[in-house]
Amino acid sequence: QVQLVESGGGLVQAGGSLRLSCVASGRTFSSYAMGWFRHAPGKERALVAAINKSGSTTYLADAVKGRFTISRDNAKNTVYLQMNTLKPEDTAKYSCAADRNSRTYEIVTTDWKYEYWGQGTQVTVSS
Fold it and tell me: What is the mean pLDDT of the chain?
């Protein structure tokens, strides 16, 4: 089992940047494909970005392409979400998730496939 703890959220003006971090417990972080999701009030939870176990393959949702980057440091048991040029519509609670069952080079884009979830960190972008 793995526990995930997110940090880095906060209040930022439109056009600003934030970097979210998700630290995983345990010694097998490289065995998990990782994803970042966001959930805004009145909207369904949505995948923002995903990365495979080695970090060689990434996915970004169309809404954040060109502005967000996902990366991971397996030595630090951490996955990052760098968010630039933030917009008010990026306001949401951001959560990371981990999946152990995917293949080595696979990215996981379906939320129900993720086994473990963090509590989330709030990102608020003011206009």
Answer: 96
